[in-house]
């Protein structure tokens, strides 16, 4: 590979554009320095295993792994567009129901595949959804890719529950906020429900308040609200799906597969 310009940098190392010398095809190469203070060998191995298993058109693809003494290189699909949050801020427009339905369908499809092989993302948010292109004339302008599996978990059996407190404030399911409870893959459906809500009105359904305990208490004491000035033109079918994705009771919440079966999708 011929290494090109830097695409991004994080605590893990750096991501650069790379061109395959034979095919001339472009990739993103994630270079992870093993001497970094926060390098976690086990977490990296888990992320690689998850990316290898996650085969879906709406999930960022891993093409190869090269391991050296001081660095590990991940050869990833090159995603040329910005993330969902950047697009929201750039366009300053709320999504139409049709646009929101397409995104919800694509991400729910990716989640259905991930959940079927016992992978839970655990940090679904607009910043971790990337567009294939930012060119409105491109057929890939509305193609979304699920990225960043740094907090993802691959369970060993369908009955295994998770307990780690992780995710992003505003997008974390109530059972994650409740440190006395375990949870399953439906936490991803909650996060997608939050994203859908935000796309249509521009604000979070349950904003973060001080800490996890206070936020959870506020969630449980207030009903999900659809303020008329933002929601009066949104269909009842859409609101029904949002309510079923944002059920405080995970047992009553839809699975990713059930989201895809909903009449609004």
TrEMBL record:
InterPro entries: Kinase-like_dom_sf, Prot_kinase_dom, Protein_kinase_ATP_BS, Ser/Thr_kinase_AS. GO terms for molecular function: ATP binding; protein serine/threonine kinase activity. Gene3D superfamilies: Transferase(Phosphotransferase) domain 1 (1.10.510.10). The keyword Transmembrane helix does not apply. Keywords: ATP-binding, Kinase, Nucleotide-binding, Serine/threonine-protein kinase, Transferase. ATP binds at residue 34. Residues 1-265 form the Protein kinase domain. It comes from the Eukaryota. Pfam families: Pkinase. Belongs to the protein kinase superfamily. PANTHER family: SERINE/THREONINE-PROTEIN KINASE (PTHR24347). This is Protein kinase domain-containing protein. It comes from Guillardia theta (strain CCMP2712) (Cryptophyte).
């Amino acid at each position: 590979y011929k290494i090109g310009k830097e695409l991004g940098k994080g605590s893990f190392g750096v991501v650069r554009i790379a061109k395959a010398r034979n095919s001339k095809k472009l990739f993103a190469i994630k270079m992870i320095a093993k001497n970094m203070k926060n390098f976690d060998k086990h977490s990296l191995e888990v992320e690689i295993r998850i990316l290898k298993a996650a085969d879906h058109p709406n999930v960022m693809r891993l093409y190869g792994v090269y391991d050296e003494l001081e660095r590990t290189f991940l050869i990833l699909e090159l995603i040329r567009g910005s993330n969902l949050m950047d697009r929201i801020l750039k366009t300053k427009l709320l999504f139409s129901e049709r646009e929101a339905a397409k995104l919800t369908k694509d991400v729910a499809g990716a989640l259905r595949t991930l959940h079927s092989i016992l992978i839970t993302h655990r940090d679904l948010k607009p910043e971790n959804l990337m567009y294939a292109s930012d060119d409105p004339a491109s057929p890939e302008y509305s193609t979304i890719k699920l990225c960043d599996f740094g907090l993802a978990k691959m369970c060993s059996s369908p009955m295994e529950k998770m307990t780690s407190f992780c995710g992003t404030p505003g997008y974390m399911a109530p059972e994650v906020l409740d440190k006395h409870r375990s949870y399953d893959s439906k936490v991803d459906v909650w996060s997608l429900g939050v994203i859908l809500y935000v796309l249509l009105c521009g604000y979070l359904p349950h904003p973060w308040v001080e800490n996890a305990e206070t936020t959870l208490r506020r969630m449980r004491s207030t009903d999900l609200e659809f303020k008329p000035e933002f929601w009066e033109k949104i269909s009842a079918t859409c609101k029904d799906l949002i309510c079923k994705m944002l059920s405080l009771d995970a047992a009553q919440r839809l699975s990713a597969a059930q989201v895809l079966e909903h009449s609004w999708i």
